[in-house]
Task: inverse folding
């Protein structure tokens, strides 16, 4: 319902046969680009602010271009960049990226891939990724202490420069090795191009980072790689046969693009890199020691495509596990209850919820109560009028329940800020005059910011946090707020590895139900008639439904990396400081 932006989607292809093989077999020189296009379109959900592609040719001669890149902004960026692809750009290595900004930085400059040029093929580096780093200031200081001067302060550019620096050192190592073997001229170049060890480059680069990432890259000499963070926060899947090696952020993308089964696809493990060498040979290398698995549960709840066989079942399970709490909220009156969902991402959880009630009760009444219209656009600049138009993004099915008789249970995948509920959903649902509205979230209360690639960086954005602060004020517990503020400042003086998340103390005095009731008070529109009750997924239910994705820091405050804990403490300090200005 409240669209969360997510950073980002990646797609990579390595063609393992000579290029004319694909033209003869598939009837087009653009076989690789066609597959890349399909992979990116199937991940369009992961980024609509911009897109970019890159290719590397292993056969182009000196004096001709061998490394190509195209970028564009906007929701039609994929179409734009592929319309510019020409036969001159064909190559054995292809890479694509879809971008959502979570840092507020926009413009073509910040659209991936990023390219670092050099006259030596092996020193050319093209980089893209699904990542957000929590310690970019530390990495920036590390680079500048070495005498470097990055042109832009941002995790993408700084990563490009750091990895490019390490790639330079790898090439220089090989140059010395080749000279020691008595090689001269182009023989040295050939030796370097065929002996680059990207594992060395990745190990000496990624050891400096704290964050969630899948980092992907191409070199001018023909190396292709993708490396996943040691906590497994961000996802990556790959496939290999005799013709291609491909990698994407989501498994169904590979299934659809190459018409294969889920069992043919492998998930990149935490801290692991898939490396494809110039000669087409591939390897899996452990770049960083794997840490405690914290794969992002929001991927399963919301971001990844529900067409994945496991995600589909997990989302159904999330809905089904809510059945007892919903039954309690409607006082067991299933006969006089209509069940529905907020389109479109909550639909699968809705199936699970209704399956759960059918097991208990038999048949239940379901309706498509809410419809999502196209995004309304307006030239009106007055904020109040804009908000009024925005409230009409959703509409209802009039006559879908009996006024004053039927309860309405409506499920969404998550309730984050609550803005859409307050400005739109509750108002239109009240027009149906339900006896009671039970608003259900298939995820738990979102209480803490995310720093690994989701645009949830400020505590005050969350309705659960705002409700908790209101409860603290209402009950005269401002001392806890002051103590937490001082505790956060104290923690920020420690080495980040020793920090504790002090913000968690704010929630400890209250039950989930107490916070739910206050959220309702905050979000309930004026003049609304129907009673509202909120039902959130439990933490236990989340882990039961998604056992292989235990990352839950946005719900529990247990951050997988020290950088996340540090930034959460800093977020509360920033919040209190902003109130005092």
Result:
């Amino acid at each position: 319902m409240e669209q969360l932006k997510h950073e980002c989607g990646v797609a990579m292809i390595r063609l393992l046969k000579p290029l004319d093989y694909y033209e003869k077999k598939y009837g087009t020189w653009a076989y690789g680009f066609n597959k890349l296009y399909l992979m990116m379109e199937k991940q369009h959900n992961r980024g609509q602010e911009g897109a970019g592609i890159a290719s590397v040719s292993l056969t182009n001669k000196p004096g001709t271009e061998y490394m190509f890149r195209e970028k564009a902004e906007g929701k039609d960026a994929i179409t734009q960049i592929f319309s510019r692809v020409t036969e001159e750009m064909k190559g054995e290595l292809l890479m694509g990226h879809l971008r959502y900004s979570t840092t507020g930085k926009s413009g073509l400059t910040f659209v991936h891939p990023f390219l670092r040029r050099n006259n030596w093929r092996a020193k050319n580096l093209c980089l893209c990724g699904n990542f957000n780093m929590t310690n970019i200031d530390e990495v920036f200081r590390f680079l500048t202490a070495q005498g470097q001067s990055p042109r832009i302060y941002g995790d993408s550019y700084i990563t490009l420069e750091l990895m490019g620096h390490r790639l330079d050192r790898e090439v220089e190592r090989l140059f010395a090795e080749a000279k020691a073997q008595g090689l001269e001229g182009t023989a040295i170049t050939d030796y370097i191009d065929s002996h680059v060890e990207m594992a060395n480059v990745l190990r000496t680069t990624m050891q400096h980072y704290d964050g969630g990432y899948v980092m992907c890259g191409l070199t001018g000499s023909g190396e292709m790689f993708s490396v996943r963070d040691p906590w497994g926060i961000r996802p990556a899947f790959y496939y290999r046969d005799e013709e291609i090696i491909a990698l994407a952020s989501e498994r169904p993308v590979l299934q659809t693009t190459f018409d294969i089964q889920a069992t043919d696809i492998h998930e990149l493990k935490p801290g692991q890199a898939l490396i494809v060498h110039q000669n087409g040979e591939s390897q899996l290398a452990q770049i960083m020691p794997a840490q405690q698995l914290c794969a992002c549960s929001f991927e399963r709840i919301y971001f990844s495509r529900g067409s994945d066989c496991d995600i589909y079942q997990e989302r159904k399970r999330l809905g089904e596990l809510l059945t007892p709490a919903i039954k309690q909220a409607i006082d067991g009156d299933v006969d006089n209850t209509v069940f529905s969902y907020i389109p479109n991402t909550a639909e699968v959880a809705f199936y699970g919820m209704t399956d759960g009630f059918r097991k208990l009760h038999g048949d239940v009444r379901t309706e498509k109560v809410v419809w999502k219209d196209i995004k309304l656009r307006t030239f009106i600049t007055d904020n109040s009028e804009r908000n009024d138009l925005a409230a009409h993004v959703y509409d209802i099915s009039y006559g879908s329940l009996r006024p004053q008789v039927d309860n309405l249970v409506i499920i969404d995948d998550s309730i984050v800020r609550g803005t859409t509920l307050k400005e739109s959903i509750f108002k239109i649902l009240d027009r149906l005059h339900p006896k009671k509205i039970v608003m259900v979230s298939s995820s738990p209360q979102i209480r803490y910011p995310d720093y690994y690639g989701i645009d949830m960086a400020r505590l005050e954005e969350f309705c659960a946090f705002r409700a908790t602060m209101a409860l603290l004020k209402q009950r005269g517990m401002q001392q806890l707020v002051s103590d937490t503020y001082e505790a956060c400042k104290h923690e920020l003086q420690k080495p980040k590895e020793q920090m504790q998340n002090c913000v968690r103390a704010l929630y400890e005095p209250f039950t989930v139900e107490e916070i739910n009731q206050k959220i309702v008070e905050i979000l309930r529109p004026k003049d609304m008639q129907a009673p509202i009750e909120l039902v959130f997924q439990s933490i236990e239910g989340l882990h039961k439904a998604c056992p292989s994705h235990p990352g839950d820091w946005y719900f529990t405050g247990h951050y997988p990396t020290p950088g996340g804990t540090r930034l959460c403490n800093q977020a509360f300090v920033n919040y209190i400081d902003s109130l005092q200005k």
